[in-house]
Specification:
Layout: H1 2-9, H2 12-27, H3 35-48, E1 64-65, E2 71-72, H4 78-82, H5 84-94, H6 109-136, H7 141-154, H8 157-162, H9 167-187, H10 190-203, H11 211-227, H12 232-265, H13 272-283, H14 297-306, H15 312-315, H16 318-329, H17 335-355, H18 370-380, H19 383-389, H20 391-394, H21 396-416, H22 422-428, H23 437-450, H24 467-473, H25 479-486, H26 491-521
Antiparallel strand pairs: 1-2
Helix pairs in contact: 2-6, 2-7, 2-26, 5-6, 6-7, 6-9, 7-19, 9-10, 9-11, 9-18, 10-12, 11-17, 16-18, 16-19, 16-21, 17-18, 25-26
Amino acid sequence: MTDRFSRLFRNPIFLLIAIAFLTAVLVQSGEMGTSDTTHRLRATHSFWTSEAPVLPDEYPEFGIHGRGRKLYGWYGVGQSLLMLPSDVLGTYIENLPIFAAYKGTDPTIRSIVVSYSTSTLLCVLTCLVCFRLLGLLGFTVNQRFVGVLALLFGTTFLHYTQNMTENNYIALLTLTGLTFQYDWLTTGKRWALALGSAALGANLLTRLTTGMDLAAVGLFLLLTAWLSNMRGQELRSRSIQYAKIALPIYVIFFTIERAYQYYRFGSLFNTYIQIFGEEWKHRNPALPTAFPFETPFHVGFFGALFTPEKSIFLFDPLLLLTILVAAFAWKSFRPEIKAYLAAFGPMLLAYVSFYAKYTVWSGDTAWGDRYTATAAQIVALIAVPLLLRHRANLGGMVWRAGLALIFISVIVQLSSVAFWCPLERYELDMPNRPAFVIWLRMKNILAFALGKMGDWGLMSEGDIDDRWDYVHITTWNFLPFLLKRVGEAPAWIVETLEMLWWTLLAALVSLLVLARCLISRGEFRLASRSSS
């Protein structure tokens, strides 16, 4: 029995599952994290109940008119479908007699079930897919394991594990598509190509702009084949096979997306953004003709890159590490790594460029620029594995700079889950506030821990009209502490959850320490059938 447990805890896949699971559970607040996801959950509920997808009192702040003048949300169907099983389960649990006294309070039982089950599943699956992808790219077990931990704790992936926007779902589908399509390229397995294509196609149901992910994966495959000296008949044969399998799958998902568009708005040839713009301009003729793409390009483009409120380099510092390692070790990179950076680097810039003119190019209330965050995570994913692989060729200065960037990245991401993300938005609206959001977050953490929020002039109840928002943003954004602050749950439940939270945190820290020891001693044991 002892040997069995020893082997289990030396298995990197088991450890990754456990670490990802515990991390996702610990960071949950029980809320959806943003109003966008709350609206998408309402659409989910409308799929199987009589509830309307948009409530009448939400308009005109949210919702646009569709067929029969019915109000619909302006989002794709992807995340709403993802939350369907957990919504059914959460609704059933919420209606149990034991929760009768708690019904109608925040966070609701239904939102707790949906957030915990969905975010945890996405987190675990994404970590497993990344581990497999890094294996296909030729990294060692240690490099793969540390690389996945860097994604989890060193990129905005952690923040969006807590705040359940579409980002992590898009990341999972894109990385799954990339992993299995690349597996097809190296092995010729047609089922892998079909599975990867289905994942990329499913992304179109979430946002049509994920067509850029689809194109980037295709470019990566082409560049990898070319740099690996795949030429002539072999390249043509592979291209034809790709077209025969992948393109029909993409067409199926695009057709489903268009059918949903027609169901809501009666047209196959427009997007909900166009309808949104037309309806808002009809209500407010003073809006610019180009609305919702009226922002000057340079404002949104350079804003996403360099502004202290939204810079992708500030919120995902591992991007800088990717650039640093590439600058010093490019000639040593394998063909597939060069292809990876040559495909997904431009994809990140394409996202920045596409949203540069959007009326809320910054992603509005979000930690960083949420429209470009997933692309940034994908580029940053290989930074740490590359640093470890090429350490001998990089020199001591680059190595130390890399370690510093990793440390900064982890601190930034841990701080991102401490409070609900609108906190700094409210503070930025107050006079004499620094625009450097990350610095403001660090100051908020220190002030709250010392009980100095009011003394330091950061946030008081009089600064916010909505009491629930004030309560939510001025407590640690984890379920036990939020319930304790709200005061709607029985004390014994709050105390039990808080004790459980601290226990799980201790378990997570113990697993991370164990992983550190196994890595340093080279004692990971990976079954051969899972090595790729």
